[in-house]
C-alpha cells in the first residue's frame, strides 16, 4: 500500500481547462472520495492518476515513486469502472485472471489470487459464468475482484455503484467499507452521491469547476464547510441561504441584520474575523424552527409540504422571493399558503463573506469532539 | 349458462384478434407480395426449369435429374469453372476481410480527416460494376495502363496483366478487392461499438496492445467477422461482372468463373434448364459452405444476447 501525492495537476481538453492545478496529499490506507457535480473534473482526476489521460502539467507520486510519466500498466494500480468493463466473451474466472496471465504470472499464483478474491467477494459459484449471466451486483463484485487480484498499491473506483438500484447500492456500500477495512488498501473513489462519500470516506475531496473546493473529513465538510459551494453541496435537503449585512462586530461575535432578517442574528466565530458589508447567512433545513407569530427572524409563505412520516419538508417562499426549506419533526400541521414565522438559532448558523468564503464558526463541544474523534480514527 | 354467456365474448375476442392480425398482414403485404412474385416465385420456377430440357424457343421436356447428372459427371467445364471460382474465393475472401479490417482499424484510430478517408475508401463500393471495369481495364492496359507506367518508372517492364493466363485472375482479384468499402464499413461500425473501457481496463491491467487486439477486439468483432465472411463467400461465388467485361473468361479460360459458366449456358447456348441446374448447384455449394462456417463460428463468435447454460440471475 502507499500514499499518493498530487502536485499542481493540470489537464484540459482543447480550450476547456478541466483540472486547474490540483494539490492533494492522500495517506497510506486512506479511503478518499472525489465528490462533486457532473463536469467538475472528478473522473478526469481519477483517470489522470490511472494514467489514462495525458497531463498538461503537474506531478503524481505514489509512495516515494514519481509515476507522472509511468505507463498505466506499471503504476501498480487497479481501477474499477462505472460500467464494470467486464470482458463479455470471457467467463468470470477468465475476467479475473486475464491481465495476470498476460503479465507472465505462474498458473498456481493466478489460481491462488483468483480463489482468494472470489472468496472475499463471495463469487466462487459464479466463476464459470459469463458476465451476461450475472446480476448488476454480481458484475460489480467481479469488477472489484479484477482489481483485487492485482494486489495493487492503489485502488481507483470510478462511480462503481451508480449503475445499481438504490437498495443494492446500500448493500454494496457496506460491502465496500468492509472490503477496505479488510484489505487496508489506499482507495480513491469517485462519486456524485454525497451519501456514498460521507459514509465511505476517511476524507472527501469536494471538487468544483476543476478545483479543490475543500478536502476534509465528512463531518468537517458538514460542520465547517470552507465556502458556499461546499455548504450548499453537502447535506440534504441543501442548506438555506439568506442575504444579510454585518451590523456590528465585537470580538468573535458578529451581529447580522438587513436582507430578509426581521431581528438581528448574533453569529459566533471561532476567531475574530475581518468581515464587513454584505454577507450570506446559511442554515440547514433541520435547524430552522417554526415559531409563533411575533417570534423568529424570518417569515415565509408555505408553498408545499412533503410529509415523510418521521419528518416533514416545508418548502417556503420568503418575502424577498427566495426559496427556503425547513425540515420539521413529525407531521407538522402547517398548510399550503399559510404564513409561518421562522427562527434561525444562532449556534447553527453559517456565515460566508461576500466572496463566498466561510467564516469558521464556533462549534459546541460535542460536535467538536465528534470531528476530532473522526480525524483520530483516520490517523489510527 | 356460463358457456352461453361467454360464447359471444369468445367469438368477439377471436374476431378482434383476426382483425388485429389482418391489419398487421395488410401493413406487410407489399413486402409479402414482392417476396412471392420476385423471390420465391422465380426460385421455384428455376427449380422446375432445372428438371427440364428448356430451350428458349421450342419444346420443354422433363428430364428429371439429367441436367445435374450431366453437369456433375460429364461436363469438364463445370469442374474447371468451379475450380477457378474456388481459387478466386480462397484468395479473395481472406484478403477482403483482412484488408477491410486493417483499413477499418486505421480509420478507427485516425484523428485526422477520418471522415474524408472513410468516404474515399467507401466510394468504389457505390460505383457501378461497368465503371469499375472501365477504370481497371485502363489501369491494367499493357501499353498505356497506369500500373505498367508506374512499374516503368522503377525500371520494370510490366506484364500483360489481362492477357497472361496466370495473372488475369490476380488482376480480377485486385479489381474485386477495390470494392471492399462495404465490408470495411461494417467492421468499422463494429470497432466503434466496442466500449473503450474494455481497452482501458486492459491497459491498466498491463495487457499489451497485441493481446488487446487478439483477446478483446477480434472476439468482440466476431458476429461482424462472421457476417462479412459469409457475404464475401457469396460474393466470390457470384463473381461475374468483372470477369465478363474485363476478360470474357479468358485468356485460355483462366478467368472462366462458375457464374459465367451459368451465364453462357443461359444466354449463349440458350439452355435454360441446364443453367438453372447450375444455379441450384451454386446455391447448394454456398449453402453448405455457409453452414460449415456457421458451425465453425460457434467456437469463436460470441453473441451478447445469447445465453447458453447457467441461469440469468438478473
From TrEMBL, chain A:
UniProt entry keywords in alphabetical sequence: ATP-binding, Nucleotide-binding, Transport
Signal sequence region: none
UniProt xrefs under Pfam families: ABC_tran (PF00005), TOBE_2 (PF08402)
First-listed, main subcellular location of the protein, grouped into a coarse class: membrane
GO molecular function: ATP binding
UniProt keyword annotation of Chaperone present: no
Protein localization: Cell inner membrane
Membrane-topology annotation of the record: Peripheral membrane protein
Annotated protein name in UniProt: ABC transporter ATP-binding protein
CDD domains to which the protein is assigned, alphabetical: ABC_MalK_N (cd03301)
ABC transporter domain location: 4-234
Lineage: Bacteria, Pseudomonadati, Pseudomonadota, Alphaproteobacteria, Hyphomicrobiales
Domain of life: Bacteria
InterPro entries: AAA+_ATPase, ABC_transporter-like_ATP-bd, ABC_transporter-like_CS, ABC_transpr_MalK-like, ABC_transpr_MalK/UgpC-like, Mo/tungstate-bd_C_term_dom, NA-bd_OB-fold, P-loop_NTPase
PANTHER family: MALTODEXTRIN IMPORT ATP-BINDING PROTEIN MSMX (PTHR43875), MALTOSE_MALTODEXTRIN IMPORT ATP-BINDING PROTEIN MALK (PTHR43875:SF3)
Family as reported in the entry's similarity comment: Belongs to the ABC transporter superfamily.
Automatic annotation (TrEMBL), chain B:
Bilayer topology annotation: Multi-pass membrane protein
Transmembrane segments: 22-45, 82-107, 119-140, 167-189, 210-236, 242-262, 274-294
InterPro entries, per the entry: ABC_transporter_permease (IPR051393), MetI-like (IPR000515), MetI-like_sf (IPR035906)
Compartments, record wording: Cell membrane
Database matches in Pfam families: BPD_transp_1
Record keywords, A-Z: Cell membrane, Membrane, Transmembrane, Transmembrane helix, Transport
Domain ABC transmembrane type-1: 82-293
CDD domains reported in the protein's UniProt record: TM_PBP2
Signal peptide start and end residues: none
Family affiliation: Belongs to the binding-protein-dependent transport system permease family.
Protein name: Sugar ABC transporter permease
Amino acid at each position: 500500500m502507499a500514499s499518493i501525492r498530487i502536485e499542481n495537476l493540470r489537464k484540459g481538453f482543447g480550450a476547456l481547462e478541466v483540472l486547474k492545478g490540483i494539490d492533494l496529499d492522500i495517506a497510506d490506507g486512506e479511503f478518499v472520495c472525489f465528490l462533486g457535480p457532473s463536469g467538475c473534473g472528478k473522473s478526469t482526476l481519477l483517470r489522470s492518476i490511472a494514467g489514462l489521460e495525458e497531463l498538461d502539467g503537474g506531478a503524481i507520486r505514489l509512495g516515494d515513486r514519481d509515476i507522472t510519466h509511468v505507463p498505466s500498466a506499471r503504476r501498480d494500480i487497479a481501477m474499477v469502472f462505472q460500467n464494470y468493463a467486464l470482458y463479455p466473451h470471457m467467463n468470470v474466472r477468465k475476467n479475473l485472471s486475464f491481465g495476470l496471465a498476460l503479465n507472465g504470472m505462474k498458473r498456481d499464483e493466478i489460481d491462488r489470487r483468483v480463489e482468494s478474491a472470489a472468496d472475499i467477494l463471495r463469487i466462487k459459484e459464479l466463476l464459470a459464468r459469463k458476465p451476461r449471466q450475472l446480476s448488476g451486483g454480481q458484475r460489480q463484485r467481479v469488477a472489484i475482484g479484477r482489481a483485487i487480484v492485482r494486489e495493487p498499491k492503489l485502488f481507483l473506483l470510478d462511480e462503481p455503484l451508480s449503475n445499481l438500484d438504490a437498495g443494492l447500492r446500500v448493500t454494496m456500500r457496506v460491502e465496500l467499507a468492509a472490503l477496505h477495512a479488510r484489505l487496508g488498501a489506499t482507495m480513491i473513489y469517485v462519486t456524485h452521491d454525497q451519501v456514498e462519500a460521507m459514509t465511505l470516506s476517511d476524507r472527501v475531496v469536494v471538487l468544483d469547476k476543476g478545483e479543490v473546493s475543500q478536502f476534509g473529513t465528512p463531518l468537517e465538510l458538514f460542520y465547517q464547510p470552507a465556502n458556499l459551494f461546499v455548504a450548499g453541496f453537502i447535506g440534504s435537503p441543501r442548506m438555506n441561504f439568506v442575504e444579510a449585512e454585518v451590523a456590528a462586530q465585537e470580538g468573535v461575535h458578529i451581529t447580522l441584520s438587513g436582507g430578509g432578517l426581521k431581528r438581528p442574528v448574533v453569529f459566533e466565530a471561532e476567531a475574530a474575523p475581518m468581515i464587513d458589508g454584505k454577507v450570506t447567512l446559511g442554515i440547514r433545513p433541520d435547524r430552522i424552527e417554526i415559531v409563533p407569530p411575533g417570534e423568529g427572524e424570518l417569515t415565509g409563505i408555505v408553498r408545499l409540504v412533503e410529509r415523510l412520516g418521521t419528518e416533514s419538508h416545508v418548502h417556503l417562499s420568503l418575502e424577498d422571493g427566495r426559496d427556503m426549506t425547513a425540515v420539521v419533526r413529525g407531521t407538522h400541521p402547517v398548510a399550503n399558503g399559510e404564513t409561518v414565522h421562522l427562527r434561525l438559532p444562532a449556534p447553527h448558523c453559517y456565515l460566508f463573506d461576500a466572496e463566498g468564503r466561510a467564516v469558521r464558526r464556533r462549534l459546541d463541544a460535542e460536535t467538536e469532539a465528534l470531528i476530532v474523534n473522526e480525524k483520530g480514527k483516520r490517523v489510527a | 349458462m356460463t358457456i352461453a354467456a361467454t360464447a359471444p365474448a369468445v367469438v368477439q375476442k377471436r374476431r378482434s384478434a383476426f382483425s388485429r392480425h389482418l391489419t398487421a398482414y395488410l401493413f406487410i403485404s407489399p413486402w409479402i407480395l414482392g417476396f412471392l412474385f420476385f423471390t420465391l416465385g422465380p426460385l421455384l420456377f428455376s427449380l422446375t426449369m432445372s428438371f427440364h430440357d428448356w430451350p428458349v424457343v421450342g419444346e420443354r421436356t422433363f428430364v428429371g435429374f439429367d441436367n445435374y447428372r450431366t453437369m456433375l459427371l460429364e461436363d469438364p467445364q463445370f469442374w474447371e469453372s468451379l475450380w477457378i471460382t474456388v481459387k478466386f474465393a480462397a484468395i479473395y475472401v481472406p484478403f477482403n476481410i483482412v484488408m477491410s479490417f486493417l483499413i477499418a482499424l486505421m480509420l478507427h484510430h485516425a484523428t485526422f480527416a477520418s471522415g474524408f478517408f472513410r468516404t474515399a475508401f467507401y466510394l468504389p463500393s457505390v460505383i457501378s460494376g461497368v465503371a469499375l471495369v472501365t477504370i481497371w481495364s485502363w489501369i491494367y492496359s499493357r501499353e498505356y495502363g497506369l500500373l505498367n507506367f508506374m512499374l516503368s518508372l522503377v525500371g520494370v517492364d510490366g506484364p500483360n496483366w489481362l492477357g497472361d493466363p496466370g495473372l488475369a485472375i490476380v488482376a480480377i482479384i485486385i479489381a474485386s478487392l477495390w470494392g471492399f468499402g462495404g465490408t470495411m464499413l461494417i467492421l468499422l461500425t463494429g470497432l466503434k461499438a466496442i466500449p473503450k473501457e474494455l481497452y482501458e481496463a486492459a491497459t491498466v491491467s498491463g495487457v499489451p496492445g497485441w493481446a488487446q487486439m487478439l483477446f478483446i477486439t477480434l472476439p468482440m468483432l466476431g458476429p461482424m467477422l462472421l457476417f462479412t465472411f459469409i457475404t464475401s463467400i457469396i460474393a466470390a461465388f457470384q463473381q461475374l461482372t468483372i470477369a465478363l467485361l474485363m476478360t470474357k473468361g479468358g485468356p485460355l479460360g483462366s478467368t472462366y468463373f462458375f457464374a459465367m459458366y451459368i451465364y453462357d449456358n443461359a444466354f449463349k447456348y440458350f439452355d435454360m434448364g441446364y443453367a438453372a441446374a447450375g444455379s441450384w448447384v451454386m446455391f447448394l455449394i454456398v449453402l453448405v459452405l455457409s453452414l460449415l462456417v456457421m458451425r465453425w463460428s460457434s467456437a469463436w463468435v460470441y453473441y451478447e444476447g445469447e445465453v447458453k447454460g447457467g441461469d440469468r440471475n438478473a
